[in-house]
Amino acid sequence: MNAGDLVVTERGFFSFVTFACLLARGVDSLMRLPENKLRKAIGSQLPKAANFDVIVTWKRPTKSPSTITAEEFSLLPECLAERVIRYTVAHRGFRSQSVTLVTTLLDPDIADSDFADLYFRRWNVELHFREIKTYLHRDVLRCLSPAMIERELRMHFIAYNLIPCVIQKAALTHYFNLCRISFKGCLDTLRQFANATAGAEDKPRTVSAIVDDMLLAIARDLLPLCPGRAEPRVKKRRPKNYRLQTKPRREMGPLPHRKVGVENPPQVA
Question: Is the Cβ–Cβ distance between 44 and 22 less than 8 Å?
């Protein structure tokens, strides 16, 4: 796909204001069209076919949203030319599903299948967020001042980017598919080989041999090929139903037991 700046987002960001503001900055966008907004926005201009690729005119809504002021809303264009693409996703054993995409990139040389493939790969962004929050435990910031928070974020970015570099080196060294190498497996392997590498830091040949073995172990830890797999975004373990600490412990005093029907422990006189 030959294009300039293109933003790919999910259906939650779909709005006329988002399209217009991005386009004003010279950035095209590709979003999924929610079915409930399909009829209100451009439903009358779409064909009745199951799959189509058409260009429609999206008029500016009459009511200004709460995200911008009325003056900013009045500066938006009266209408936008949008390319609407609908295709059907079918997997064996499951019901077929229709997906509608909207983009401001009107180049006719770009096939509709390219947009569909690009939006399908957007899910990798969600996997990157999972790797940062769950595997690296970077979902909570510990610092308090803005300067330290910025420094903490930079350290998180450095640590996260180093792991894909190791994955890429393992894939290129042993000729494995880069997309199939496990991020969690690479992280566990790095932790296991870190002690062995630190113990032989004064022996360059030993360290080189350990690194080669580590890259081979990372390259062999492949993810199963399961296209179109969907897993529920839920937690396996339930959190304990303790109360939240809203003040220092010395000020909270004794609290009733978190379980109903259980007596409180005896208090010290």
Answer: no
Q: What is the CA radius of gyration of the chain?
A: 26
Express each pLDDT in 239-262 by its tens digit.
777 778 888 888 887 777 666 544
Across the strands, what pairs with 139?
A: none
Q: How many beta carbons lie within 10 A of that of residue 45, not counting itself? A: 13
Whether the CB-CB separation of 264 and 256 falls below 8 Å is answered with yes
Amino acid letter for position 70: A
User: Is 184 a residue whose pLDDT tops 80?
Assistant: yes
CB distance 159 to 183 below 8 Å = no
Task: Report the amino acid identity of residue 45.
Answer: Q
Per-residue 3-state assignment (H helix, E strand, C coil) for 55-124: EEEEECCCCCCCCCCHHHHHCCCCEEEEEEEEEEECCCCCCCEEEEEEECCCCCCCCHHHHHHHHHHCHH
* Measured CA distances, 15 to 4, 61, 151, 227 (Å): 21, 10, 34, 30
